[in-house]
Write a structure and sequence with these properties.
Strand content: 15-25%
Helix content: 25-40%
Order of helices and strands: HEHEHEE
Number of helices: 3
Number of domains: 1
CATH class: Alpha Beta
CATH superfamily: YhbY-like
Radius of gyration: 13 Å
Strand order of the largest sheet: 1-2-4-3
Shape: globular
Largest sheet: 4 strands, mixed
Structural class: alpha+beta
Oligomer: single chain
Distance between the termini: 13 Å
């Protein structure tokens, strides 16, 4: 689990990022989880936006993504979810 200090650090890093994925009407499916996992391996930190037409609420979507990708939830702010997962090959972020 991430400490409060680590979450603050990751939030500051994520501030400048644009959302890469959007969760819409279809919600979270296996294909999306696979793509998000691959993107996390490459980037470690990413934002995902939950569209207004999504059937599930953002907290449910965040839980599904965290469980599916084995990532850490950094924060849910507005309709944006910030995820972090340490990369095995291309580690760029060093946590405090």
């Amino acid at each position: 689990m991430l400490t409060g200090k680590q979450k603050r650090f990751l939030r500051s890093k994520a501030h400048h990022l644009d959302p890469i994925f959007q969760v819409g009407k279809g919600g979270v499916n296996d294909n999306m989880i696979k793509q998000v996992s691959e993107a996390l391996e490459a980037r470690e930190l990413m934002k995902i936006s939950v569209l207004q037409n999504c059937d599930e609420d953002r907290d449910t979507v965040a839980k599904q993504l965290v469980n599916g990708t084995k990532a850490q939830l950094v924060q849910v702010i507005g309709n944006t979810i910030v995820l972090y997962k340490e990369s095995k090959e291309s580690k760029t972020i060093t946590l405090p």
